[in-house]
User: Fold these one by one.
Assistant:
Number 1:
Amino acid sequence: MQIKLKRFAEQLLFASNILIAFLFFFEDKLVIPVWLQTVGRMHPLILHFPIVILLIAMLMEFFRFKTENSTNMFYRNFLQNLLLIGALFAAVTVIMGLFLSREEGYSGELLLWHKWTGLGIFFIASLIYWVRNSSWYKAPIAQSGAILTVIGLVLTGHYGASLTHGDNFIFEPISSRQEMAAVPLEKAVVFNDLIRPVLENKCASCHNPDKLKGELVLTDPESIKKGGKSGKLYVPGNPEVSLLLQRIHLSPDDKKHMPPAGKAQLTPDEIQLLTLWVKENSGFTKKVVDLPVKDPLRLLATARLVPSAKKEEAYDFDAVDEETVKKLNNDYRTVAPLAKESPALSVNIYNRSAFNIKQLDELDEVRQQVVSLNLNKMPVKDEDLKSIARFENLRKLDLNFTDVTGKGLKEITTLKHLQSLTLSGTKVNYKDLQSQISSFKKLKTVSVWDTEISVAEVAQLQKSHTNISVIGGFRDDGKDPLKLNPPQIKNAATVFSQATPLLLKHPIKGVAIRFTTDGSEPDSLRSPVFSDKTILNESVTIKAKAFKEGWYGSDMATFDFFKCTYKPDSVNLLLPLNRVHQAEGAKTFFDNKLGTIGANNPAWANNWAAVRDNDMAIVSEFKKPVTISSVGMHYMIEEDTGIFPPDIVEIWGGPNPDKLKLLDRVKPGLPSKGDKPSLKSLEGTFKPETVTYLKIVARPINKIPDWNKNKGKKALLLVDEMFIN
Amino acid sequence: MEKEILEHGLNFNRRRFLSSMSLGIGGIALGSLLMPDLFKNGELDEEALVAGMPHFAPKAKRVIYLFQNGAPSQQELFDYKPKLRDLFGKEIPPSVRGNQRLTGMTANQASFPLVGSFVDFKQYGESRAWVSDLLPYTSKIVDDICIVKSMYTEAINHDPALTFLQTGSQQGNRPSMGAWLSYGLGNENKNLPNFTVLLSRGVGNGQGVYSKLWSNGFLDSVHQGVQFSKGEDPVLYLRDPEGMDRKERREMLDNLSELNEISYQEFGDPEITAKVKQYEMAYRMQTAVPEVMDLSKESDDIIKLYGPDCLVPGTFAANCLLARKLSENGVRFVQLYHQGWDQHGNLPFEITKQAKDVDQASAALVTDLKQRGLLDETLVIWGGEFGRTSYTQGKLTQDNYGRDHHPRCFTIWMAGGGIKPGIVYGETDELGYNIASNPVHVHDFQATILHQLGLNHEKLVFKHLGRRYRLTDVSGKVVNDILI
């Protein structure tokens, strides 16, 4: 080789060393432009050169220090040049390989091994080239270097081949292993196509005629039936006593667990498969299709035999550019790629009032790319389906609650890729769908809930089109009536001062609300039906229930109405309220807001005023004297938490705040043990009295009775509202 | 030979060394041509990945998360443990309990007697999944759902556990799952928020939910969850004030956005553009929201399907129905919270009512999505923030007991969105205390959800305060076993 050329090649090799080291160091950031991918794909072509050249070079390197060789000028020169060329080819191959590995679909451990062994060859070969003329480079080093490189070549070649051709490429034709997916479901035999592959993969390496562990052979039906040293392998139809199942179900730490620790374990699916096989006594000849449709073994078999479409769908059309897609978007139309770098587009249209079929016609530029179109609730008519048919690559079409009918379906039968069609809430009928459904060759699901197609017709459709899932959805057959929810109250407040209409409502249309005012339980026949004519004049308890044909009557709802004719113009507290139950202070008692039970309810904190250590004492003032004859008080009882009624309530009144007269004194009853929390009211009545000032004093219970868990302590008194009439 | 070596040494002079070096640098230069981002300060191509677009073709387009706040007891709902009944009142073996920390509520308890479910279980559907008698409607849809019995979490109290499940961190301030999805996927319907929240309260012991759970964290505030409330104004401040018509509103917004544009030019704060976008969306929501919230057009079948409460605003059933309507209209993530599952005591009584509250509507939602052909592209999730203990909290009587918080295992179910229907995944030990097979960590669960929506959880990142954040923090594996 000419000295200049050689110098150049050496420099190139050095540069390659640096380049490759650098590329590997920053490999994660590598972005390969499309034109370089072509270069990358030449890796499988070029790689044969370094293999052959380096093999020869290493052979020669091995014997280089033999006297006849070391003195042979040609041998020396040839080897030196061969090594240089080999290393250079290795460099080119490594770079190409690196480019190729950045493409989709290359990953995993195998690639990693291939990459590092390949890289190793290149650097060892380069190293040998650089140092082979040093004084310390003697025969043993040369030989070990050569061996190392050859081993590297073999390994790299093997890993690379496995990457391209798959594992076990060479022995595949002679091994009897069958590809699972290759067996069509109709022909599959439970044992041959499901059980045997599992046994062969996971068990037969030890239990075969050559190895015979535990005197058990799992390669043919006869031996399987025979069993092994520990006895019969299984009892057909009796999984509990079957040795096979016992062993595979043992904890992995157990010595007898099969497959033994360190060997490839059975997957849950495979365990399930073996269990069902024994349990159902499927034997050795039963076909999968002979099993009942809903049989668990058949379901499992179907799942295993029909390969799942895990891979992303490949489309045979090109992407349109981003700008085009972007400009097709507006407030009511979303056009977006399914994913980054996917050519397929998904289109959603919203806002019924703004809909116009032009919104679809405007998408002409991308009509090939649209694979999913959502027109849910849009007023799409039969004649508009022509526009939809232009989206020839549609996979999914949502026409729920559109105005289409079965007549128009013919227009879209040209959608040969359509997999999912939703027609729920449309006027599609059985006849039209039945006549068109077979024209959709790829259709997998069609939903026809809330259409004119009856439950029986859905079943009929499903029966005649087993490859399509026909979704009928939920239809009330009236056989399983539900209970109505109770009526609700529409009055803004249940405390009123003047005659007020009773307002009840129910969320469900056509419900009759029946109610009583005397505290009795309303019934479905005699109690009056609520209309908006009832006027409330007095405090009253309304009990109401809802009824409707086809439903069970509701639970009873109870609404307490309180009349409070006179509102004091000012209210003052004479003694403080409990620190944590201040509510709105003195105003609480006349704000028309009732509290509810339950400390977690927001209304709790706001509406309940309480005392414990002193009386609840208020003085209210009326600017104009009023004549009253009763005073009421609304309070809570929750014995469990020590909330009790007042011990005693005194009502004082008169024109002069200093000379009030005792009008009445009320002593409400105590709750008993185990009473549910409740809201109660008490009332003190007296001869009509004209008052300007009214003093109300309620005393909390000083000692909680002995049956209560808070016995001996002071009780809490909670009051939310008072009523003056 | 000697001579050659000497010659070689002599030849290797400075000039040669430098020219070799220059070659090396040339090699680097050549290589760097292929690495456009090498000198960009280690910036990942975040922009390219997160342009509001899935990384790969998604199975699910939307999520409805029926969060059962307070932690439903798996022992009374899905995780059938007959052995626990046999061992009624027996102390839990220390070997099972291990060094599991306890909450402050049972840490001082002297004994930990085991207690089995007060309610019976049966097997249903083709999947023969065990479901308790408390869930008669859910038991009818077992072939449409995937029950995961082996969820586990790190937190032991409600707020951290809830925050962990929703944001991937036990402390607040991180974006919620819905916000991440909004950020990762972008809008499907530009007239509604991407992420909405609906609250309801059951009969049982309630635990608070706070708006931090639907926070956008450090993401742009357009990704924040929008709470729809039950009153007349489901979205607060959306209604035009009296006397203002649509036209005036439009003019006002146009003028306002001009002003905002000026201010953006001046300060360059991205929050300004976010604000303009939100105003615009609010304007469109003014017509879109009333349409979605209108339940008056729902058919009788739908009312029967969800139960009569679906027409009572603020109930779980009504929220499920609304969730379907929002999802149907392209809202990416509808988050429900139903409070009241925290049965520390009085469990048999409370859980019965609590389960009744959610059972029919949860199952109805799955059925309803299915009959509209939407279940394939909508992922429905049902579950709480952790599980409950196999031993009782407080006094154990024949018919009454309670259960404390238990992070080591709990049960959730998922349906649709490319999740295998009709399977039960993962098992707990026979005392229902530890996971026996196929554990699913909260981050695995989150990674799986993102995966179903076409997002690689390791690549859905946002750089904040000098580091990249993910929903799954630094862990999480997609649970491939439960995917179609």
Number 2:
Amino acid sequence: MAYHSSVYLLLFLPLMWALWALVPQKYRAGVLLGGSLWFYWCGANYGIVWLLGIAAVVWLLGLAMGRTEALCAAVRPALDPPGRKALKKQAAALKRCLLVSGAAGLVLVLVRIKYLPFLLRVPLQWLAENRPWWPQLSLSSITQPLGISFFLLMGISYLVDVSRGAAQPAQKYWQVLSFLCFWPHVVEGPFDRWDKTAPALLDPPAPSYRALCFGVQRMVWGLFKKIVIADRANAFVKLVFDDWTQYSGAAIVVGTLCYTLQLYAEFSGCMDLALGTAEAFGVPLSENFRQPFFARSVSEFWRRWHITLGAWLREYVFQPVIVSKPMMRFGKFCRGRFGAAAGRSLPVWTGLLITWVLIGLWHGAGLIYLVYGLYYFLLQLLGEIAEPHLPAALTAKRETRWYKALQMLRTFVLVNFGMMLFRANGVMALLQMLRRLFTPWRQSLLIGIDAKDAAVLAAGAALMLAVDVLHERGHHLRSELAARPLPLRWAVMIAGVVAVMLFGAYGDHYDPAGFIYAQF
Amino acid sequence: MHTIDEILQILDEVKPGLEAGENDELVKTGLLDSVDIMGIVMAISEEFDLEITPLDLKEENFHTAAAMLALVNRLEEE
């Protein structure tokens, strides 16, 4: 049941909202959980066993950490200062043990399901070819449960937050389950934090007309981006990237631009559908996009694109790795060998390398995803190295309009290259596409789409750009619309729905496209 | 107790040309990003021989030079 399917929009969602709004307050959290489980069952069937099991493990570990802390607090007053110190140390060690075993177990589940076939493919192939006496091994594949990358990582963040004392552990199993499987964020994120989402999820606010209107408006905008723009661009992108040997020059350039547009419209559209849904139910989810194409550097781009993945990796991988004892020792070693500057920067770059490799591999198990992560690492590293050496005359112009525009253009080009890398059918296909980029394309650029499609795509992209410009300037469009007269509000709403129905890419002419990020 | 000049010197080493004042906002203005902050963390722990944990890596501890000084002095007292 995809977020843009008619079953979801016309049956599931209205039914859930009506039920949620009609039942007494104390049952609303139960309705949300029931809806989440129904939604998950529709998408994953027996894959739900993974979700239920992982939620149970996360809940039990969190509870154990909470009990440890409570026990400490109860015993502490009766102890002398050295005893309190020893107790604190023991409690910290126990919590660390629970956290490490839990997080490692969850990561192992993810590695087994998602990455082991990729990791073992080459060694097993090598053994079969070069060591005939070696017994033939095959790895049984496990069907990847829907959204496993999302609910596993949210489970880890919950455990870390509880162990740090930044969040109170859930007392009931259904509370953790409700957080992990809340249907607006279980398929494609965002990665939400327990302390931000759980209060409204477990004790939902009263239904509100304003929240419903805002939520529906956001969903319509998300639908527009997904069905009108992304699915239409998909027709062009699919042909160029799946049959890359037939295309060259401008066709590849336009195909890459269309893919960037497709991915942005689709992923941010999906987030609009998810956040709009949650908003209608009074549950705030984290924003995942903030006008990414206004970024002036690739690192800023990643602070505006898939924000919650970057924040998750920064808080739970990058920072803990840097301040870990081995990395501090590595820093001291580098300082002794290469000087103070290297002692500071080499550990940070190592942490960055680990983070970017994980970002790459999070997107999929394959060499191309590793290259994708390393590409951004290299760009960031070069930026860090080049920054102090830029001429003073140039850096003095940093805040001028033309300089900012140039930086944005440079970032846009680099990101588009990254998109090409991400979408290419493997490393060899990418290299061939790069070679063919310099062969002129002398045929029509209407590939897989007609002139009407191209016009709708261009208009849709222009509309998205206009909305992004307004958001970047600090406008809150839905609040501003809410202050306008009722007929105008309804006119805008109806225009949005009609635009989706009239210009949406569905029917015999189009391949129905699922959400790209749903497979992660 | 350490002084603000020591912190400003570290900032100058990690991010040459920053020219930050004691109470200048450094994070929200984009002058420092997470990579710069981790460079500062490495420098502070090295310079003052302090152990900084993930719990200390909050934005409020690094948004101004004065906040960094407060963090250093607090960690030293602990």
